[in-house]
Design a protein that fits this description.
With 313 residues, this protein is of the alpha/beta class. The protein has a single domain, classed as Enolase-like C-terminal domain (TIM Barrel), CATH 3.20.20. 40% of the residues lie in helices and 14% in strands. It has helices spanning 33-48, 70-77, 97-111, 127-137, 152-165, 175-178, 185-188, 199-202, 205-215, 228-240, 274-282, 296-312; strands at 14-18, 21-25, 58-60, 63-65, 85-89, 116-120, 142-146, 171-173, 194-197, 219-221, 271-273. Strands 4-5-6-7-8-9-10 form a seven-stranded parallel β-sheet. α2 links the parallel β4 (63-65) and β5. α1 crosses α12 and α9 (205-215) packs across α10 (228-240). The longest helix is centred in the last third of the chain and has 17 residues, at 296-312. Ligand 164 is lined by residues 6, 62, 64, 87, 120, 122, 174, 222-225, 249, 252.
């Protein structure tokens, strides 16, 4: 990683190659096999299966700003060409609400009033903390707040409290969808205004499409910090969604210090195209692989994990 993101400094992943092209298997290292196995299903779908037909040929993508200091924000934004939406990480462990306010204020000052700004707390706040934080951050005009609190019931309660306070910040569910036993519960309980969907944690493009249909809420497709190969699957999902009004969090290849593809899937003029994603997945080779291969015990660890997850399927 160029800068630390969700505690990750070095991103490791496995690329699979099958008759349909390249797939990715890169569950975060702390995930147990049962959860990681869904990521394998997604990788196998990409390399051996078929994705649904696209209904659009490009997607708008958001810039993603990790929990950096305000003086680092301009440098991060410079890596996202033409993005009209910015997502800012907040509630990072070891930081304060003042740090979040300073970062979001810097983003808003740099992008001006017409760009949309959203925040992602990764389930780090209690309801009271979220209420206080979003009340302060709403001064910077937020498009939405992603997973402010961990529990579905907390999200539902927060929505009621914010409405009562007159704080207009919609709530998006991410972990409550991708890490939940029941990904539709958040929709059933009225706990979110929209959902964030990610191909790998949800077990593939087809599975994610079903969840969006079942939820009946607007959806945003986001990455799992994948290489261009995994991002291509995200583009396939975004391209197949019947409705898509918001920018997708698929611009994260620029957060990696290096990528595997000859033409990395980074947004140009704020968009990613289905044609470019298709080119990555169907390439004969991924040239970056040669420079980034794992060896020794890390390689063994991934191969053993792959085998164990395959057993779970
Ligand atoms: O949505 C984006 O802008 C980028 C992707 C992103 O934020 C994430 C990718 C991978 C892991 C997550 O912690 C994080 C997220 O929570 O959405
Ligand atoms: Mg999130």
């Amino acid at each position: 990683m160029r800068v630390r993101f969700r505690g990750v400094e070095v991103r490791e992943t496995v690329l699979l190659h099958g008759p349909s092209g390249w797939g990715e298997f890169g569950p975060f290292v702390e995930y147990a096999d049962e959860e990681a196995a869904r990521w394998l299903t997604a990788g196998l779908e990409a390399a051996w299966g078929r994705w649904p037909e696209p209904v659009r040929d490009h997607l708008e993508v958001n810039a993603t700003v990790p929990a950096v200091r305000p003086e680092q924000v301009a440098g991060v934004l410079a890596r996202f060409d033409g993005c009209r939406t910015v997502k800012v990480k907040v509630a990072e462990r070891g930081q304060t609400l003042d740090n979040d306010v300073a970062r979001v204020a810097e983003v808003r000052a740099l992008v001006g009033p017409t760009v949309s700004v959203r925040v992602d707390a990764n389930a780090a706040w209690t309801v009271d903390q979220a209420r206080e934080a979003l009340t302060r951050l709403s001064a910077y005009d937020l498009q939405y707040a992603e997973q402010p609190c961990p529990e579905v019931a907390d999200l539902a309660r927060l929505r009621v409290l914010l409405a009562r306070d007159g704080v207009d910040v919609p709530i998006a569910a991410d972990e409550s969808v991708r890490r939940a036993e029941d990904p539709l519960r958040v929709a059933r309980e009225g706990a979110a205004d929209l959902i964030v969907v990610k191909v790998a944690p949800l077990g593939g493009v087809a599975a994610a499409l079903e969840i969006v249909a079942g939820a009946g809420l607007p959806a945003v497709v986001s990455s799992a910090l994948d290489t261009s190969v995994g991002i291509a699957a995200g583009v396939a999902l975004g391209a197949a969604l019947p409705g898509l009004d918001l920018a997708c969090g698929l611009g994260t290849v620029g957060l990696l210090a290096a990528d595997v593809a000859a033409r990395p899937l980074v947004p140009t003029a704020g968009v990613l195209t289905v044609a470019d994603a298709h080119a990555v997945v169907s390439a004969a080779d991924q040239p970056g692989l040669a420079g980034h291969e794992l060896s020794g015990s890390r390689r063994d660890w991934w191969l053993e994990r792959l085998a164990r997850c395959h057993e779970v399927l």
